[in-house]
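Structure, all two chains, one model.
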Amino acid sequence: MSSMNEPRTIVIKPSTGWAALNLKDLWNYRELIYFFTWRDLKVRYKQTLLGASWAILQPVLTMVVFSVFFGGLAKVPSDGVPYPIFSYTALLPWTLFSKALQDASRSLVSSANIISKVYFPRLILPLSSTLAGLVDFLIAFTVLLLMMVFYGIHPTANLWLLPLLILLALVTAIGVSLWLSALNVMYRDVGHMLPFLSQFWMYITPIAYSSSIVPEKWRFIYALNPMTGVVEGFRWSLLGTGEGPGITLLISSCIAVLITISGLFYFRRMERKFADLV
Amino acid sequence: MSKTAIRVDNLGKKYNIGLPVVKYQTLRDKISEGFSRREKIADSYIWALRNVSFEVNEGQALGVIGRNGAGKSTLLKILSRVTEPTEGVVEIRGRVGSLLEVGTGFHPELTGRENIFLNGAILGMRREEIQGKFDEIVDFAEVEKFIDTPVKRYSSGMYLRLAFAVAAHLEPEILVVDEVLAVGDAEFQKKCLGKMSDVAQQGRTVLFVSHNMSAVLRLTNETLVIDHGQLLMRGPTQEAVDFYLSQGLTQEGQKIWREDEIAEAAKPFKPVAIRVLDKQGVVADTVRSIEPFTIEIEYELQKPLKGLRVGIYLLTTRGEYIFTSFDTDDVEQYEANTVRPAGRYFSRCEIPANLLNEGRYVIGMNASTYLIKRYFQDDQALLFNVDPAGAPGMQWVETRLGTVRPALKWKIESYESGDMQHGKK
């Protein structure tokens, strides 16, 4: 509070090369992250008939389709647990990730009118778009709990890993959308590419199938997709299938951190041009 | 005693031409232009601002004037950190609030209450701060009854009042104002001006950018004149305004028709240009209400024409006609010009002093022979501004209603009290 009342001296000058991250500024504007997240939540289901049920309907309907075609007709093996809960456990973090990816990547362009008029750290936009998805995730999570009761599956002691996995999914989403949102300001192709990217990414992630069908020699490359680690971890932690956190999760985490750090610097480098280009 | 609030040193901002117009590129454009890229970069930029240096002391109200595209908005955008300069340094002591962003981030689906918090946060206010000022904001905007209604159901006036109220209660150390007075009704404009002079009197620093010379004169004591991205002068506002109005800086007051704007059917009439000339005979986009000015139409006749009349319409920017006038309205002129031989012509019309009120006006142009043929018509040939500085009634801070602002004679007679009847002296 007091820091706001004393005049701070702000120096404005052209930033050269790779701009510093300026996390202090982000901290000063932390309330704005809350307000943007809150706005996205408030507005998302306004003037809809089903309201927040959409958060549940999307993963549940996907789960039903998967269960009928992959589980029922194609008889895809599901590591010894019923196929519906097998796929739904994976769809939860996936929906969180893909929603965050799509919203955050479009966040700069959809807030063009604010960007061209007011200053605030632009990082706030993709960050708050990502966080808004977390509430949908929690709502959809309740369905999983009901399904676990229905199928008589007890949560394992591995549950401790869950928050870290959620974090990993969010970090991955933020990292990728830092790149894509900044690119989208310059090249609107990103907007057209997003649905494909999301679909493509879903196929290379073990959602409809188990990662155990991937041959051993491809495992390393397969683990380069951070969402592989997240989805496998979710199943291990909630359903007790597969192996515990190991090399796959380590690789996934490293890649996610790498994407995010490089994304941060790229974003900051492009940030000064946003208002002129958007 | 007074410290420097803003220090601008050698500021410059370069824009790539094309980019602001093209808006965005696609990868395909990028690929297809791949080979020609190098030369494109070499010559396709302009300096929207260059070598600008000045200081503003705490508590000072500084005006910034200049015509469209002079670099005023770029300066404001840099000061409010929306865009980065290409060169130079700015040092700012304190929070910058700008009234160029009224209603930024308002979401139509959210209620008035929710938007106050959201908008306040976007402008850089803390939550406690907004809570503390909430009642004051609602009061100022006069929207108590609708505070829990989504703003998409607001009238445009309510919307604007609420937006302005949030911005006006930001209470920054430095307030930047850009043409907010151009929007809203007269009542609302009065309120804005009042709020701004409050801010100035509280010892805050105000930077006021405007086309409205009289508002600049009322609210600031010193003013910068900017043209072509350069700082031309800084001086007491009266001097700066006189300099601006007299230097022909307002050179946009001219329209030259391109070949492709002239239809084949216009022949043998060929319009060349239409201009607004101020009292000194200089092309100007802003003229003073208290001075006469001239509207000049330049054209060519490729063949002699019989019964031609060339004239103007004067309209408000809302499209209401103020008057229509032709160069052969006068019977003597009419008889002297029954046939105009081929050649180059100027038709000039003098608009008397003390006719138009402050504001923006549109000139339309028409060349025709009555009931026979319309050779050429351009309904929006030219825009110009009228500045009221020095006009009657300028001692009051208010916008006068109406399109005309005549200097009228008034008499005030005093009667003995208790004896109000005429003739009973």
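Residues 19-24, 35-42 of chain B have pLDDT under 50 and may be disordered.
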